[in-house]
Write a structure and sequence with these properties.
This protein is mainly α and 69 residues long. It has two helices and no strands. Helix content is 88%, strand content 0%.
Length: 69
Amino acid sequence: MTFLAKLKQSFGTTFSFFSDSYAELKKVRWPSRKELTSYSIVVLVTVIVVAIYFWVLDIGISQLVELIV
């Protein structure tokens, strides 16, 4: 296969990829503003709870190491 043929084929697959991607994005059901707000709140609360859990765990392990040393 010649260089120009490979180049033409790669541009064809690139354009095909973007057109297929655009077609798939049109099929997506995007969340409403209310759903997006509730999902964001769930994520933030989860992150805060996990951060507090690891903070308490870190303090406990630090105290344990202090007692050992």
